[in-house]
Amino acid sequence: MAGASAEDVKVVGLSLSPFVTRVRIALRLKRVEYELVEVRFLEPKSEILVKSNPVYKKIPVLLHRGKPICESAVIVQYIDEEWSDGGRSSSILPADPFDRAIARFWVVYMDDKLPALIRALRPEKEAAKVTELAGQFRQVLGQMEETFAECGKGKGFFGGDAVGYLDIALGAYLGWIRALEKDKSVKLLDSEELPRLAEWAERFLAEESVKGLMPEADEYPKLYAAAVASQ
């Protein structure tokens, strides 16, 4: 597939991580076989993680022919360029330099806001605080609803007719978004408040490149607890 085998490509990380999910979706879009190497993310961290990402010691890491590439946004761009199939393969990043810059901007915005909100909301038990955090979450998604209207240009995805860079970046968070909605009994991606984004989410999750890469919503708390316990 795309000239690479699982022996050539390894993804170091955990299936629960939205950042790892990004990389896996990109590889599937490019039809690249790979091996997922699940590792410890708490101290003491797995040796392969420390060795392949000695600066941040964070997942994910892409190992391609033994060479490490770190940071999910960087990895997705690498995948897009490395497996372009001489230009015959569809591009993940926008072709236009301005559109590409805008997409990168919004990925930085999401990664600045959403992980912190997920970390805060996941263990929260106090009803008032849950409501407050859910409101902050909807504000961020509301901004992405507006961005979708601009970047999608009336088509089905941020990338236009097909899944692209921004779709992968935001879509990888959908597993956690749905898990938090169920676990905390709150609405984050509200179809009434955010109709275009909610419809986009359904289309994204139905894509063959996405199916099966994110656990079901009710599995996240159990899988997270098990992952922490195994560290």
What's the CATH first level of the largest domain? Answer: Mainly Alpha
What fold name goes in the CATH topology slot of the largest domain?
Answer: Glutathione S-transferase Yfyf (Class Pi), Chain A, domain 2
What is the 3D shape? globular
CATH architecture of the largest domain: Up-down Bundle
Q: Which secondary-structure class do the elements indicate? A: alpha+beta
Distance between the termini: 34 Å
Total E-strand runs: 4
Molecular structure report:
- There is one protein chain.
- This protein has 231 residues and is of the alpha+beta class.
- It folds into two domains: 9-87, Glutaredoxin; 97-222, Glutathione S-transferase Yfyf (Class Pi), Chain A, domain 2 (Up-down Bundle).
- It has nine helices and four strands, in the order βαβαββααααααα.
- It has a four-stranded mixed β-sheet.
